[in-house]
Specification:
The chain has seven helices and no strands. It is mainly alpha-helical. The chain has one domain. Helix 1 (5-27) packs antiparallel against helix 3 (46-63), helix 3 (46-63) packs across helix 7 and helix 4 (71-100) runs antiparallel to helix 7. The longest helix has 30 residues, at 71-100. The protein is elongated and about 60 Å long.
Amino acid sequence: MKNIKIEIKWAICFTFMTLTWMLLEKICGLHGKYIDYHLYLTNLFAIPAILFMVLALKDKKKNFYHGNMSYIQGLISGLVLSAIIALLSPLTQWIISYVISPEYFPNVIKRSVEIGYYKTTAEAEANFNYKNYAINSTIFAFIFGAVTTVIAMIFIRTKK
């Protein structure tokens, strides 16, 4: 437990950052009035997500490995962090879907049918629902975290 204390801390911080981002999306109208822009603007989330992963890896290097972290040590740390974030993803998605923005799914279902992205409401409902988002966010969190770690560790590792 002591070995992954930093990863747990950053996974919790990442979760709060995600919830804050979704709250800002809702406040800006991206889950309602401006839902047509959501598809594009939500991708900006990658910026703070990458930043948090890099900060977590730097924290691990500085405070656990005392400034001397190999690529493999960082890779393991990043994969552990990604796994914890992925484990928290269903809860995070539940809070987003049922507390922060319960109107998102009905709005995106209605709009996706209106613009012809889906032919029927049933087709849209099959895609836009908590279960689908929880599964996808869990898988995506781990993959995105792993890819970010693989790349970030090229720069963060201690070079000999």
